[in-house]
Amino acid sequence: MSTASTATSPDYARFAIGFDERDRPRLHQLIDEVLDSGRWSEGPMVKRFEHAWAAHNSVPAVALSSWAGGALAALQFAQVEGATVLCPSNTFMATPLAALNAGARVQFVDCNREDLCMSFKDFEAKAAKYKPKAAFLVHIGGHIAFETEQIAAYCEQAGIFLIEDCAHAHGAAWHGRRPGTYGDAGVYSLYATKTITTGEGGVLVSTRPEVIEYARAFRNYGKTTYDVAGLNFRMSDLTAALALVQVERLPEIVTWKNAVARTELDPAYPSRLELPDGMTSGLYKYIVFDWLDRSTGRVYDEPCHRILDHQVNLPNTDWVARNHSCVPLYYRPQGQAS
Ligand SMILES: Cc1ncc(COP(=O)(O)O)c(C=O)c1O
């Protein structure tokens, strides 16, 4: 990465889409390629994007029109209808709603105060109590959940299908390992506020070829055998052109955000969330355990178990909702217009 792109900009505190203006000419050229190809859907640009994502993520990938499409594909593969799915409460409502829409019952799990992500201790207790068929692990804020390895190992031995909600986790790594490679499937969102975005979009990744094959059928009405009761969650090739330039730029965006965090934010925020050794956060959010006026708000203000009125005691989840803030940190390399 060039020194010019690590240079900090005073504008990082103002919201910006995670798009690098230097990618505009290449994006136009790729869009022209799609226009000329006459393949605006199910074409080669989607495949190019999937290969690029797979190379970045070190795991096969399926492009989708939303995170929701990937989550539903994974849940349906796991056959959760009528069964229990464990889910952290400190997440966006998309996570439990996907399970509910797949016909499952949801039971909520507490988080840790240190990483805002699902607690292994409470997960173990709830798994023993509810015998879930599947579970969500949400990598909140841009880092990998600190107890991912324990949770994944537990799920593997107990036969619980583990879905990593990677909606925040673009560009994260732990000793070089990427989100979405620990469980049975990982699902990213490319919604407009995410670290990289196509406005709308999603990606499912999985180390299991049968899950990848299922998701490909699921996003396309089960074509061609119709064994899979899917719907339309296809990404168009025009969107894939944008997705391709975005994933190619992702490592630089993450490096830039981390450089700004280390030089500008860390000295000012001693109460920040601390990462374990060997972990890189994609810094979707810069989280501090403080109540700041100048904040992009909380990751989540109201936990899902309260929104859905579940009578369950999740003390860390309630504590996190009251005791953290997010310091604004948006990708805007020097000289980039706002
Ligand atoms: C944790 C989490 N899961 C799921 C989603 C849903 O993503 P999408 O809007 O692409 O369906 C989001 C984001 O918007 C999210 O933050």
Number of structurally distinct domains: 2
Here the CATH topology of the largest domain equals Aspartate Aminotransferase, domain 2
Order of helices and strands: HHHEHEHEHEHEEEEHHEEHHE
CA gyration radius, whole angstroms: 20 Å
User: What is the CATH class name of the largest domain?
Assistant: Alpha Beta
Strand content: 5-15%
Ligand set: pyridoxal-5'-phosphate
In whole angstroms, the N-to-C terminal distance is 22 Å
Uncertain ranges: 1-7
Q: Keywords, please?
A:
Aspartate Aminotransferase, domain 1, Aspartate Aminotransferase, domain 2, single chain, globular, two-stranded antiparallel ribbon, binds pyridoxal-5'-phosphate, alpha/beta, 7-stranded mixed sheet, 338 residues, 2 domains
What does this structure look like?
With 338 residues, the chain is of the alpha/beta class. It folds into two domains: 3-19 and 250-327, Aspartate Aminotransferase, domain 1 (Alpha-Beta Complex); 23-244, Type I PLP-dependent aspartate aminotransferase-like (Major domain) (Aspartate Aminotransferase, domain 2, 3-Layer(aba) Sandwich). It contains eleven helices and eleven strands. A seven-stranded mixed β-sheet has the order 1-8-7-5-4-2-3, sandwiched between helices. A two-stranded antiparallel sheet has the order 6-9. Strand 2, helix 5 and strand 3 (105-109) form a beta-alpha-beta unit. Helix 2 runs antiparallel to helix 9 (237-265), helix 3 packs parallel to helix 9 and helix 4 packs across helix 5. The longest helix is centred in the last third of the chain and has 29 residues, at 237-265. It is globular and about 55 Å long. The relative contact order is 0.20. Residues 1-7 have low confidence and may be disordered. Pyridoxal-5'-phosphate (PLP) binds next to helix 4 and helix 5.
